[in-house]
Specification:
By secondary structure, this protein is mostly helical. Helices cover 68% and strands 0% of the residues. The protein has one domain (3-207): Orthogonal Bundle (Tetracycline Repressor, domain 2), CATH 1.10.357. It has 10 helices and no strands. The radius of gyration is 18 Å and the shape is globular.
């Protein structure tokens, strides 16, 4: 197998592992996902799996990276500014929670774990091309959720949508806390109206900043 085909196969395996994991978890807890089940469905060995994901929780970080890449692709075609950007991210996170609650909750748990300090998981050029075939993906910058929120907060200040004088990073962290906290609260109380719940919470916080 040529180096090019080998790299392409490796990229496809990583994406297949992610999509299979999302399918197997469904509405259940990420903890109930087993590497053996993933390998059986993808058609790979455990040795191959751990070659790409040294630990099972790395799937969560890869999911986050792909999610951020998808947002970057969308925003490159339809940019958002200020509060519109903040509410766009809220809506996308809400949609992801509805679609993959176990994975989103697993990601929040992983990011807040003392045992697993958060860090970005790489997304290679071939993986980008497979995720968005036929698109110009090379020049797309993948920002973290915090960076996106900080940018939108700064724009909101310039547009006078936020008028309280305080640190941009501090506001972004507060907004992220509201969104993540709303997800966890919605799960704990089995709320069926999560989008309304998180929107109301976000609006209350933003009202205090104007």
């Amino acid at each position: 197998m040529t180096p090019g085909r080998r790299l392409l196969k490796a990229a496809q395996f990583k994406i297949d592992i992610l999509h299979t994991s999302l399918e197997l978890v469904g509405k259940n807890s990420f903890d109930q996902l087993y590497v053996e089940s993933i390998c059986e469905k993808v058609g790979i060995s455990k040795v191959t799996f751990f070659k790409y994901f040294p630990q099972k929780d790395d799937i969560l970080l890869y999911y986050q990276r792909v999610w951020l890449f998808d947002r970057a692709m969308e925003l490159s075609k339809s940019p958002k500014e200020g509060l519109k950007g903040i509410f766009y991210l809220k809506d996308e996170l809400a949609a992801s929670y509805y679609k993959h609650p176990g994975v989103v909750l697993g990601l929040i748990s992983h990011l807040t774990s003392f045992k697993h300090p958060p860090g970005p998981f790489p997304l290679k050029p071939l993986e980008r091309q497979l995720l968005h075939p036929g698109k110009e993906v090379e020049k797309i910058d993948i920002l973290s959720l915090n960076q996106l929120l900080e940018n939108y907060v700064l724009e909101a200040i310039f547009k006078k949508e936020i008028t309280k004088r305080t640190d941009t990073k501090e506001i972004a962290n507060m907004l992220l806390s509201v969104i993540y906290g709303s997800i966890v609260t919605a799960h704990l109380h089995r709320m069926g109206t999560f989008k309304v719940f998180v929107t109301r919470n976000l609006e209350m916080v933003l009202k205090g900043l104007t």
